[in-house]
Amino acid sequence: MRFIFVAAFALALAACGQSGSGGSSDSGNASNPPSPSAAENQTAIAALPAPYNAANYEAGRTVFAQCRSCHTISNGGANMVGPNLHGVIGRPAASLANFNYSPPVRGAHFNWDAEHLDQWIANPQAMLPGTRMGFAGVRDATQRRDVIAYMMVESAR
Hints:
mainly alpha, Cytochrome Bc1 Complex, Chain D, domain 2
């Protein structure tokens, strides 16, 4: 009985994927196009402005795993506890019509760019006190650079 449970769990786990995360291998049919290769992802990073062109896509994807519990980043992705982040670069703060932002975010008057994302990811509460985003932040500047570059690439796909 234990073997059947373990086998069923392994099959269920194998069926789980990270669609829209980039870097996973998909079948390539019309409804599920192939994910870009690691080389294509890093080429997309290299095309970004400095300092993001020196980032590591896979390291950024790893850091973004912390964000996935509350955010999606794929085109047409759902809002969760936090808003979908697809197209976030250049988007005005609190501008998704179908998401209920906290008052400090609604009162923010800026467009999301790399500098604002860097401040936000470093410490959301310091940037906009009273925000509902319960995230302690990413203290390491290299990790922030990598995750912002990852977001730049993924939110434009």
